[in-house]
Every structure is written in structure tokens, then in C-alpha cells.
Amino acid sequence: MKRLFCFLALMVAIILVGCGKPDFSDAEKKTVASLALNTLPSLKPDTTNRFADVPAAAALGSTLFFDLGMSRDGTVSCSTCHKIDRQFQDDLPQAVGVGRTNRRTMPLAGVARDPWFFWDGRRDSLWAQALTPLENPLEQAGNRAAYAHYIKARFGERYERIFGPLPDFVGIPLNASPLGNDAERAAWNAMSGAQRDAVNRVFANIGKAIAAFERSIEPAQTRFDRFALDLATGAEPKGDAVFTPEEILGLKLFIGKASCVTCHNGPRFTDNGFHNTGVPPVANLPPDRGRIDAVAQVEADPFNCFGAYRDGDVSACGELRFMVKDAPELVRAYKTPSLRGAATRPPYMHAGQFSSLDEVVAHYAKAAPSVEGTTEIHPLQLSDRERAALVAFLKTLSE
């Protein structure tokens, strides 16, 4: 009888494990709970953009986001790379607008919570970021004077209801920008200071409208979030909230032995920092040194938090004021991307270096030296089973 009882107890234990019955320490439960989407705080106001939470601005921003007219040749919009059915990203190793860029398109879910933007953080606000592709010759390839004229011609009434009167465009050339081709730069330099300021204000408001729309894009709940909530409350997992033994092992590795949570932490699975993780360069692409070269760019940006086009006062500029400007760890350091939805948006890394999550895990396990600077990661002794388990867990972060 005793043997039969022990046998039945063993079988119950096996069944529970097979159904994904979680077995976590209190410390592990606390860490898992910190990653759940329900712990994501409310989105803070952007005091540098007083239109950030104005519905009419967001509506105009949505229109501009999908408008092919917001490019030099009428073939590219923000949504060309940030595809709504691909988590506002694309499937390419490097984004393609008017030309091919040297970086991977970043997803937009939760982007308004970032302190820095782009893989290298070369812009310090969501609205300043939104302006950059508009004039990038490889992305939308336009110029700010042309955009100002376009706004007046097509969206003048909507713009003025939100931002106030448009400036007098008499004498303002159709094409002019300090970042354009020789003719556009010459036209920009020939303009008066007041004319340049007027164009810049319209241009800044374009970015503020697009940013107001992008603030509405938030991450969606996943299997992991349902599992984490059940784990935290002690509820019996049901449906897709039941993790397999492999997924549980992957989660334990993620927050433990593999140390993934060191950088991929919080409910968005990112520390918003910049790290050199030894990701190799891509042949035939321009040299890319990451964060170290972005510092000068963000400081020089006339639309940064210290600039004349920021709303609110300078108290909002702490990130820019206290940013690390020159340190060895900035060399080939790139932003930690959110892992939410990562399983469904290969390839990976800042230039699409890896085609699968298996390759990503293999890279971190091997920890090859960086081609420049010093990598922050160290080799991991992971078995094939453990690597597969990590990938299995990462897939629970996607719907």
C-alpha cells in the first residue's frame, strides 16, 4: 500500500511538471513579477512636446505617418519601414526607404518610454527622432522647407487648428535645408534667420504630431504575462498561461544562469542602455561605432532638449545634461532592444546580423571579442538543451 501511494505521488508530480506547474523561489517570483506587463507604469507626459497627448495632433500624426507624400519621390512613408502588421517593424536586415540604410528598423511598441532613440541614441526625444528619417537621403530624403510647403498646401487647416497660424511663406524657397544637397543648403543659407526659424517650427511640429501618434503604440499582453500574473498570485495556470517544462527552464535561465535579465529587465525587457556585446560588423556597410559617435550628433541637433523648439522648461533635459560623453564602453555600444514580440520579427541586432533566435543565443553563449572596444558579455556554458529552452521562453513574449 505504501509503495502504491509513493507511486501515485510520483505520477502526480510528473503530471504537474508536464503541465508546466511552476516551481520558483520567492526571489525568482519577484524577478518574474517585475517583468510582467501589468507592472508597466502609466506613460509620463512629455513636457518637451505640449501636443503629445492632444488627440487632434495624434490624428494628424497618424495621417503623416502613413502618407507617401512625406518623402522626396512620393514612394516612402514612416510606415514603409514601420509596418503596422509587423509590430511597426519590417523583415529586412537593414531598412530600405529611398535607399538602403545601414541599420535594422526598430519596433515602436512602447517607444515613447525610451530616453534615447535610434540604435545609437542620436536623438533625445520621440519628436526629434521622427524628424530625422524625413531628411535622411536613404530614408524619406525630403527637406524641411518642402515639408513646410506640403503641410500648408495639404493640411493647412488641420495644422492651424492644432498648432496655430502657419508662417508667411512668401520668399521661402520650395526646397531648402541645412542637411540637403548643395542647392538646398545654398537656398537655406540665403534665407533670413526669421525664415529659417519659421520653417524649423513647422518642421518641429510635424515631429511632435507624429510623436503624439506613436505614443499610442503600446506592447500587447503575451503568454508570459498571463503566466507571470498566475505565478505572482498563486493562481492555477490555465490555457496558454501553462508553460511547458522547457519554457520554465528557459525562464529560469533567463533570470539566472544566462544573466539575460541584466540588460533585458523591467516590463519592456530593456534597460534602455547602450552595450557592446561583441556583435560583428556587416561586410560592405559603412563603419558603425555605435553610441560613441552619436553623442556629438545629439548635442548638435537643433531640435534637442536644449534647443529653441522644445516646449516646457529645461528641467526636462536631465538625460541630455548628464549623458556620458566619452568613455571606452560607448565604443560599438548599441541600445538594448525590447524583447517583447522579438520571436516574430527576425533578423536580429542593429544591422540584422543574426537570422534566428538560435543564432542570437549562440552568439551570447560564445561571447566572441568585439572588433573594437570591449564586449560586456562573457562565455556561457550552456548545453544544447538549455539553448533551446531559452529560445522556447523567448517565444512566450510574442503573441
UniProtKB/TrEMBL annotation:
Subcellular location per the Swiss-Prot or TrEMBL entry: Periplasm
Record's protein name: Cytochrome-c peroxidase
Xref: InterPro entries: Cyt_c-like_dom, Cyt_c-like_dom_sf, Cytochrome_c_Peroxidase/MauG, Di-haem_cyt_c_peroxidsae, MauG/Cytc_peroxidase
Boundaries of every Cytochrome c domain copy: 234-398
Keyword list, A-Z: Heme, Iron, Metal-binding, Oxidoreductase, Periplasm, Peroxidase, Signal
MF (Gene Ontology): peroxidase activity
Pfam families, alphabetized: CCP_MauG (PF03150)
Natural source organism: Mesorhizobium huakuii
Domain of life: Bacteria
